[in-house]
Structure formats: structure tokens, C-alpha cells
Amino acid sequence: MLRTALKPKWLGLLVLVLALCWGFFLLGRWQLEVARDSALKEQLAQAKAQAVVTVDSVLKPHQAFPNELSARVVYATGRYDATEQVLVPDRRLDGVGGSWVVTALHTDEGPVLPVLRGFVADGVPAPAPPEGRLMVFGGLAPGESPTAGAALPEGQLRSVDLAVLVNQWDGDLYNAFVFAQGEEAVNGQDVVNLIVLGDLHGLSRVPTPTGDVGLNWRNASYAAQWWVFALFALWMWWRMVRDDHRKSRETEAGDATPAHGIRDAGRE
């Protein structure tokens, strides 16, 4: 069969089929990217449609973090403790290396909420948190896993490891931290000033991760269809080569039979 497949006509057809398969593969990959983008847009739309609520209404201290709260926008009112602030180095934002600045917010309800106030570039000192009573809002995220490595200077952690922070900071911690989107100074019950993190002494806001994004299954099925077409094209080429090979063998067998019959008749 290999000899049949190496015939010029089948080799030429194979080149055409492979080019077609490559096109089908690219179309399938494009549909898969569309499926992911569609799923992300749906997820963001759902997140925006949810009302912004207090963190205390959706999460309690020591409660396991529910997956559905990832990226949920919440707010909390309280005061930062400048003595309870850590840097998380080896992070990047827009191609720049630096550290996350994470500060303890002692909420009015009592528990402590770790707040990722923003990003500071390497070599730039982290600013102290604003004083006074604040309302902080941003997207929730579960604590990060421990990261191994060489010992870091005091006041630095390799990850936002809540199991470490709960032993370093006073009070009960929520089992989550917030990617701060803004801080509003509060006087009594009235918001009196908005502090934009991007303009806060060199701190840049860190976007809230969207978490695991699923697929838009309709577009994902289109991707699968293109890849099935590619496999079908290869299968058709193989079948045509196989049929040609069988015909060749049948022709050779047919040509050989009369020759034997003539020789046998001559002997008689």
C-alpha cells in the first residue's frame, strides 16, 4: 500500500489535503478563541449585573471562600493600619517589575480585610496608607498558595498567603483579599472624597483577575466541527489510496489468471 501512496497523483493530492487540513485547523482555533472571548464577555457582564455589596454580607471570617465570589465587587468601611502592611515582590504590571502593596483594613464590623491597594515599581518606596475612615471597594479573590524560595526581608511575602497574615495581623481575617479599585474617605455616613489609586503616590491599580473562564459551547462546537472536517479529509485520502491499492492487486491477479489457463491448455 505504501507504493500506491507514493504515486505522484496521490502525493499531490496529499499535499492539497494537508493544506486543507491546516486551514481547517486554523479555523477551528479561531472559533475556540471566539468561544473563550464570548465566555469572558458573558462572565464580565454577569459580574457587572450583580449589585455591589458589603463583604460582610457575602463572606464571614474563617469561612471557606466560595468559587462564585471570585471577582465579585464588594466594599468595606474601616481604617487602614499602617503597621500591618506587606509587600509581595516579583510581580509585574504592564511589563514593569515591582511589588504588590497589601494592607490590613480593620472594618467597622470588626474583622480584618487584606486589601491589595496597588502596585509599586521596583526601587520606589511603598506609600503609607491613607489615614482616617475609608470605604474601600474592589474585586474579591481567594488567598494565594504559599511559594517556596529564599527568605525575604521583614515586611515582604512571596504570595498573599492568608495563613501567614492571620498570624502576623491582629483580629480575625476574612478568608479573601480585595483588589482595590478605589478608596473613598468617609465622614460620618457621607463620602467626601474619592482617591484614585493610579494617582496615589506612585501606586497603580492592579486589575482584578477574572478567574477561570469557561467556553461558549456553541463556538466550541464549531471549532470541533472544523477539526472533524480535517480528520475526514485525511480519512478520505487514505480510503482513496486503499481503494486504488485494492484495484491494483485485483488487476494483477486478473492478469495472472488467464496466463496460467493458457499454459495449462497447451500442456494438454
What features would you describe in this structure?
Helices cover 40% and strands 26% of the residues. It has 268 residues and is α+β, with helices and mostly antiparallel strands. It has 2 domains: 77 residues, no CATH class; 129 residues, no CATH class. The chain has a 5-stranded mixed β-barrel with strand order 2-3-4-6-5. Helix 2 packs antiparallel against helix 5. It starts with a helix and ends with a helix.
Characteristics:
single chain; 268 residues; alpha+beta; 2 domains; 7 strands
Summarize the structure.
The protein is α+β, with helices and mostly antiparallel strands and 268 residues long.
Write the layout of secondary structure elements.
Layout: H1 2-5, H2 8-49, E1 53-54, H3 55-58, E2 73-93, E3 96-107, E4 112-121, E5 133-141, H4 162-168, E6 177-187, E7 190-195, H5 217-267
Parallel strand pairs: 1-2, 4-6
Antiparallel strand pairs: 2-3, 2-5, 3-4, 5-6, 6-7
Helix pairs in contact: 2-5
